[in-house]
Amino acid sequence: MKLCMDLRKYDGVVGGVEQLIVQIVRYAASNGHSVILLPKQNRFQEVEAMFKDEKNIKCLPLPVTTHAISLKNMRLDSTTIQDIAEREKVDLIHFPYNWSFPWKKKVPCVLTVHDVIPFTFREAMPLFHNLFVYKSAIRRACKLNDVVMTVSEFSKKDIAKKVGIPLEKIRVINNGVREPNREVAPEVVECLFRGLNLGEDFILNVGGIHERKNVVRLIHAFTRLADTGYGGKLVITGKVSGLPYQEKMKRRCDRAVEETRMGGRVVFHRVHHGGRAGCAYGPGSAVDLPIPVRGLRTAHLGGHESRTPGDHVKHHGHAGRGR
Prior knowledge:
The chain is 34% helix and 17% strand. By secondary structure, it is α/β, with parallel strands linked by helices. It folds into two domains: 2-172, Glycogen Phosphorylase B (Rossmann fold); 186-320, no CATH class. It has a seven-stranded parallel β-sheet, with helices on both faces. It has a four-stranded mixed β-sheet with strand order 10-9-8-13, with helices on one face. Strand 6, helix 5 (153-164) and strand 7 (170-172) form a beta-alpha-beta unit. Helix 7 packs parallel to helix 8 (245-260). The protein is globular, with a radius of gyration of 21 Å.
């Protein structure tokens, strides 16, 4: 089989979506399938360097510098990418990030839609963009592609209801669990525990404080857990959107902490604005946020250089030092 994989989403950081793409590509290539990888032209050299020593993977640049919804990207979906697929004798095109618009298909097209959160929470998205760009574009994208893939049964039902496509068109492929491939130095771990004043046990929530993350309700739920005798802390980390939305959400979280009187038990790590602060997935040093997670050995949740794909683990759950 020969697969054409869209990688316009990559902007120098291997986050969640990029990790999905990397794992699919490497798994397919390692099992003897061929993959044509399509990054933006301004990221072509970085992507090519990531896969330079791997067989069955070929990188071709796309003449664009952003993955955002635009007329130029729509034309690429229907012309350039289709022409590449035909020329390379590709069996399937996979668009892995929420939208693509293959008006003219030369091979079957699959679209991964992770969720349709902006139908429920607009968050930092401008009202005009939400109503007249995002929603109409997602509806059209889901109808144009042959198959829509998502990560859970809930998302499948939500997409079918909000977007208006039949359930039969949506396939669920659940997220996998991957063990980390790099250990974090003990002194870095000790530095983290001293810096955040953590004990043996804590609960880690990675993903930021967007409205859709339900952090306010998480704080209230943590209060009920603390009432049962749990003595650890709740650590919340991850980047949100820029001002003023981020400050608005931080005020909501602060108000929840005050209401529950959990000021000494809830820790916000790098969720304020400015530079790379708050970004659990951005470039940076290993000191950002290394966390030992029970059952997964030592999971590295800090930043890494953009040429080192695949060192992040998202984890919502119980964590303990040295266990």
